[in-house]
Amino acid sequence: MKRFPLRELAHVVAMSGVVLAAVRCGGPEDPHAHDDATEFNVQSALLTRNRDALRLCVQESASLRGSAARINERLGASLRAVSNHPDWAAARFGDQKPTIELGCPGPALALERLEPKESIIGPGLALKPSRYRTFIHVLDEKTADVVLGERQVDRAPAEFLRVDDHVLAEVSTALVVRESYLDHPEFAARWLAGAVGLQAREDGLPGVLGDVLDKPVTDTSSLTKPGLDPTTH
Question: Where is the signal peptide, in residue numbers (predicted)?
Answer without folding.
Answer: 1-21
